[in-house]
Amino acid sequence: IETRNDATLDFDRRYERLDPIVRDIFDFSAWARFTADAHWQRFDEDERAAYTEAVARLIVAGYAARNNPSNGKFYKVDGVSNDGPGQKIVHAEMVTTTGETRAMAYRLYRSQKGWKIFNVVYETANGAHSDAHSLRNYVSAFLNRNPLTDLIRDLDRKAEDQKDGCGQPKDQVR
């Protein structure tokens, strides 16, 4: 909250402050395995680590861009529900300066290190949108045409593009 409300922080400072928090609540290893899909089996240990870190940088950059007090958006939690054994959904809303809302759902599972986010789903004009599934589709199509090193560079470029503060890269992963 402190980072969210501090208008003096630029993108890099918000990123720096949010990085350990986002890394603590997201399971980037699970995101990396899921989004790489069948390609994950072909990665060696170093490639898996590099890809996982690129996914982490992209997600942290998204939070640093969206948690910008100048964009006028705020988030509120509407409740928590059970989603099967060891899983929960945190229901939330993003509210814009015009009062428009977007329903969001953070999907969590209980790990040995506590509750971890494994997907974020939100409502769009076209229905529900899953961040993990969208990234998976993008990664699969990219890796069918390009090597992993190019994908990592592309994800890093997308993370860097989020510095404009709007929260969406110029050419979206979605």
Q: In words, what does this structure look like?
A:
The chain has 174 residues and is of the alpha+beta class. Helix content is 44%, strand content 25%. The protein has six helices and five strands, in the order H-H-H-H-E-E-E-E-E-H-H. It has helices at 2-5, 11-25, 28-36, 45-66, 131-143, 148-161; strands at 74-82, 87-95, 101-111, 114-124, 127-130. A five-stranded antiparallel β-sheet has the order 1-2-3-4-5. Strand 3 and strand 4 (114-124) form a beta hairpin. Helix 3 crosses helix 4 (45-66), helix 3 crosses helix 5 (131-143) and helix 4 runs parallel beside helix 6 (148-161). The radius of gyration is 16 Å and the shape is globular. The two termini are 27 Å apart. 24% of the residues are buried. Mean pLDDT is 87; it is low at 166-174.
Please outline what is shown here.
With 174 residues, this protein is of the alpha+beta class.
Rounded Rg: 16 Å
Task: Give the low-confidence spans.
Answer: 166-174
Could you describe the largest sheet, including whether it forms a barrel?
5 strands, antiparallel
**Residues in β-strands, percent:** 25-35%
Q: Which word captures the global form? A: globular
Count the helices. How many?
A: 6
Write down the secondary-structure element order: HHHHEEEEEHH
The percentage helix is 40-55%
Write down how many β-strands occur, each being a DSSP E stretch of 2 or more residues: 5
Q: How many angstroms does the end-to-end distance come to?
A: 27 Å
What integer is the average pLDDT? 87
Structural class: alpha+beta
Neighbour order of strands in the largest sheet: 1-2-3-4-5
